[in-house]
Amino acid sequence: MNRLLALDAQWSQRIRVAEKPGALRTLAAILAHSGDAWVCLLGLVVLYVAGNEYWRWRALALGIATVVTAIVGLLIKIPRRRRRPEGEWGAVYRKSDPHSFPSGHAVRVVMLAVLMIGLGPGWLALGLAIWAPMVAFARAAMGVHYLSDVLAGMVIGAMMGVFVGLIFW
Question: What is the residue extent of each domain of the chain?
Answer without folding.
Answer: 42-168
